[in-house]
Amino acid sequence: MNRLEVRNLSTSFATDEGRVDAVADVSFAISAGKTTAIVGESGSGKSVTSLTLMRLLPRTAATRVSGEAWFVDRAGSRLDLLALPESRMRALRGNQVAMIFQEPMTSLNPVFSIGGQIAESLRMHKGLDRAAARAEALRMLDLVEMPAAAQRLDEYPHQLSGGMRQRVMIALAMACDPTLLIADEPTTALDVTIQAQILALMRRLQAETGMSILFITHNLGVVAHHADDVVVMYAGRVVERASVRPLFATPAHPYTQGLLACLPGKAHSAGKSRPRRLFAIRGQVSSPLAPPPGCAFAPRCDQAQAACAKGMPPLVDTGEARQARCVLVPGLVAKAA
Amino acid sequence: MSAFAPAPSPPLIEVRHLKHYFGSKDRPVRAVDDVSFAIERGETLGLVGESGSGKSTIGRAVLRLLDCTAGQVLYRGDDIGKLSGERMRRLRSKLQIIFQDPYASLNPKMRIGATLGEALSTHGLARGPGERERRIAELLEMVGLDAEHARRFPHEFSGGQRQRIGVARALAVEPEFIVADEPLSALDVSIQAQVINLLADLRERLALTMLFISHDLDVVEYLCDRVVVLYLGHVMEIAPTAELFALPLHPYTQALLAASPKPDPLIESVAVPLKGDIPSPMAPPSGCVFRTRCPHAIAACAETVPPLEERGPGRFSACIRIDLLTPA
After folding, report:
1. Whether residue B251 has pLDDT greater than 80
2. Which residues from B are below 8 Å from A192, CB to CB?
3. What would the pLDDT profile of A58-112 be if each residue is shown by its tens digit?
4. Would you call B185 an interface residue with chain A, using a CB distance cutoff of 8 Å?
5. Does the residue A19 lie in any domain?
6. pLDDT for residue B51
7. H-helix or E-strand containing A165?
8. In which domain, by residue range, is A116 found?
9. Left, alpha or beta for B253 (phi > 0: left; psi -120 to 50: alpha)?
10. Using CB atoms, which residue from B192, B271, B277 is nearest to A161?
11. Residue closest to A8 by CA, chosen among A320, A236, A171, A232
């Protein structure tokens, strides 16, 4: 069963120089209890996708959103997150659908104690009284393995380390027992040994609660070990979708191939000696104000052909639950058949 | 040694018992606490560690961008802390730095040509306008940009291009030695590979010696000849890169390698290699600073600071549990 099914999601912003398509025609699904990762570099639209789903885009941006995002709630009814009235969305957000961000320092309120912030959510969504909410907040801090949780309850965000702040964020997200957790670069600001702790914690909570996770990251090492399905985005579009093992074993899109080939750790791991030069994707992402005609990756692609500039290639099925957006792909599929 | 043998030349850079304490005298933050290592000519030495390990402080101390509490930094055998202002200023053209954040380290109001030209004129290089323009164009081309980019401002460039400009500025004065302080961490993966290749090419072409500071172990493994592993201001381990990654001796190095997720779903990852947080450098643990998180710690670890001892050719580790840690 899919906990969330996103269909043809598009988000555009008005800028002084014209309208920019930050996210275009994005579709993917997250199964119950599974993790789908959205991978991409700066400007790929991965964070805008998550903020659109949560309906947290700033109103000043004159956003235009289209598409559908079907979420199955606890009662089993299917709701389109993009069409719900704001009051119902507010009841869902931080409750059944929770979110954690990259920088816990900026997403926690500096003037409230961490216990108070967790309790606020419990009082609002679960209707607990003050004492019950405080007791439950303590239970949540214990759940996220916060050291000396009882003392921490009355501390403020600035008194905690980066890793502990991210634990508080997770406690806050878990407080109302969400069925979908959207995690936007949750470990990017953390040291590797702390990152390992936070990822293990998220895994444990997922195993215990059966929640689904939408994991947004640029770190392919994290994706390899913590995602079930992967969505690769480039310049606002999905360029490839696959389960994690096939994606890493046989990336179909030239961008995914390049992304994996240019990792210094990947260049090594197959027991090969260190290559004299690392594979590098040439050039840079083109400006969203002046996208190239056709495939957005074509100007950087070593395998580009004349056909690439003619139009945006469609997302094509390349095998079992796999898709790629590349003019070369239908040929590959035909050859394999 | 025979009287006719040439005296062994000193390493290009040598750091001896470096200490740097911040804050009050009675309760200092021990950012760097008794660190020693050497960098040979032409070598790229990696400095790895997590937040608070002191790696950036060491990078700045090596260039005398900050004056240390104690210890020495020797350049070709001379103590740079004792050099006069004038001699230090001349030496600066030999010792350069590339910063982490290409957005913060370029003056937004200066055209790229002026930024590069300033480095040249400060050190009295490329006198005369024609010579200066020629050298600026040459530098931009060396880092893979166009000569006409000299007329542009920093905001007109992407992050990767800005980091190339940072590299060009460091190279403008023809340095022998470069400190690269996390030069890749603000860049996207596909752009990182371009800058790694650029650094590797230039290092070879210009015979540069480099101190490469990073928290990214994969990049360090790719780019460095030897590695110094730091934790809370102390050296935990020093080893040639291939040996360090094949067989880390120190429990902290072992944990650090285990914690870094490899981009391959078929490689099993260790659940959680280290519990707890990095202790505050204001109140570091007694004895071995790593003992509070070390899975192998014993009572004796709290008593004395373990010395950095040679465990094999070129391999040093600061851990008293040698029983666990002999190279096979």
Report:
1. yes
2. 50, 215, 217, 256, 259-260
3. 887 789 999 999 999 999 999 999 999 999 999 999 999 999 988 777 889 999 9
4. no
5. no
6. 86
7. helix A162-174
8. 105-175
9. alpha
10. B277
11. A236
DSSP H stretches of helix in chain B = 55-62, 85-91, 112-122, 129-142, 159-171, 189-205, 217-223, 241-246, 251-259
Asked if residue A136 lies in contact with residue A177, where contact means CB atoms within 8 angstroms, the answer is: no
| Structure-token pair, residue A23 | 């996210």
Q: What are B260-305's pLDDT values in tens digits?
A: 888 999 887 766 778 888 888 888 999 999 999 999 999 999 999 9
- The CATH number assigned to the domain with range B13-94+175-249 reads 3.40.50.300
Owner of token pair 């059944």 = A96
CA distance A100 to A189: 13
| B326 pLDDT tier (thresholds 50, 70, 90) | low
Nearest-5° Cα angle at A313, A310 to A315: 175
Asked if ipTM goes beyond 0.90, one says: no
Determine the Cα–Cα distance for residues A159 and A169; give it in Å rounded to an integer: 14
- Residue type (1 letter), B173: V
Provide Rg for chain B, Cα atoms: 21
User: What is the total count of domains within chain A?
Assistant: 2
Cα distance between residue A210 and residue A204, in whole Å? 10
Please, is B228 exposed, middle or buried when counting C-beta atoms within 10 Å of its C-beta (0-12, 13-18, 19+)?
buried
B9: closest CA of chain A, how far (Å): 29
Instruction: Grade residue A274 by pLDDT with cuts at 50, 70 and 90.
Output: low
Q: What's the confidence (pLDDT) of residue A301?
A: 95
Which of these three, A130, A152, A175, is where a domain ends?
Answer: A175
Inside any domain, residue A62: no
Closest chain A residue by Cα to residue B260: A192
CB neighbours of A284 closer than 8 A, spacing ≥ 6? A300, B158, B160, B161, B191
Dist. CA A244–CA A217, nearest whole Å: 14
Quick: pLDDT tens for A179-192. Answer: 999 999 999 888 99
Q: Which of A196, A218, A262 sits opposite B273 (nearest CB)?
A: A196
User: What would the pLDDT profile of A302-333 be if each residue is shown by its tens digit?
Assistant: 999 999 999 999 999 988 789 999 999 876 65
What pLDDT digit, counting tens, does each position of B92-107 carry? 999 999 998 888 889 9
Measured distance between the N- and C-terminal CA atoms of chain A, rounded to whole angstroms: 29
Query: Distance between CA B263 and CA B254 in Å, rounded?
Result: 18
Does residue A310 form part of some domain?
yes
Give yes or no for a contact between A217 and A198, defined as CB atoms under 8 angstroms apart.
no
Contact across the interface for B259 and A260, Cβ inside 8 Å: no
How far apart (Å, rounded) are the C-alpha atoms in residues B199 and B283?
38
Would you give the distance in Å from CA A271 to the centre of its chain?
Answer: 31
**Residues of B in Cβ contact (< 8 Å) with A242:** none
Q: Domain locations in chain B?
A: 13-94+175-249
Residue type, B261: P
> Is A177:A91 a contact under the CB 8 Å cutoff?
no
Q: Final residue of a domain: which of A175, A205, A228?
A: A175
For A97, the enclosing helix (H) or strand (E) is strand A97-100
Whether residue A225 and residue B265 make contact (CB cut-off 8 A), yes or no, is yes
A25, A10 Cβ separation under 8 angstroms: yes
Nearest to B92, CA basis, from B170, B168, B40: B170
